[in-house]
Amino acid sequence: MSIAVIAGLGNPGPKYRNTRHNIGFDVVDRFAYQLGGVWRPEARFEAEVATVQAGERKLLLVKPQTYMNDSGRSLGAVLRYHKLGPESLLVTYDDLTLDLGRAKLSVNGSSGGHNGIGDLLDRIGPGFVRYRIGIGAKPVKEMDLADYVLSQFKPAERELISSRMPDFLDHIRLIIDKGIETAFNIINQRTSTTHERSHNK
User: Fold this and answer.
1) Alpha-carbon distances of 145 from 35, 52, 96, 194, rounded to whole Å
2) Any idea which architecture 5-200 has in CATH?
3) Which residues are catalytic?
4) Treating both helix axes as pointing N-terminal to C-terminal, what angle do 155-178 and 23-34 enclose, rounded to 10 degrees?
5) Where is this site: Discriminates between blocked and unblocked aminoacyl-tRNA (predicted)?
6) 115 is in an annotated binding site
7) Residue 67 annotated as binding site
8) At residue 201, does pLDDT exceed 90?
9) What is the model's pLDDT at position 194?
């Protein structure tokens, strides 16, 4: 399995910038910046794209501009155009079942209630690689789910996510360079975050 396309999921426009649901955009933005990629609109994919070189491998970075719930429409067009299967796609996105700042790698399974992933499963099928980043659970059970995922990170939460960003980027490089199995064993080990360590001193 060789990754050729890395997509971050999110919603376009300034209204959604820095919201929990847009952490996938944040990660691919930083990855593009790290590798000198320049974003450009690509109408046929309904996306912003950037081409980067990671070692000897050329990668296409994608930010669908279809809004989260139609992510599969954009990424399906990307895969069909490049004649790639789902296994060539790495998707990074938010997961409220994981603690804030924790990351987990998976390939199979349901959407877990994530509408962007649900649309991908409907339109391109299973087999794509999922890099999930924890945004933490709703603070109050009664809170509307959409209100929560579309809310801004609090300053302390944003600071924690920023401190973890180098780890997220390292994880993506690990997946690309060493393959899924090696990455599984490293990323999915439950190690404490910097935030947790500081509270345990």
Assistant:
1) 35, 35, 10, 27
2) 3-Layer(aba) Sandwich (3.40)
3) 21
4) 60
5) 11
6) yes
7) yes
8) no
9) 45
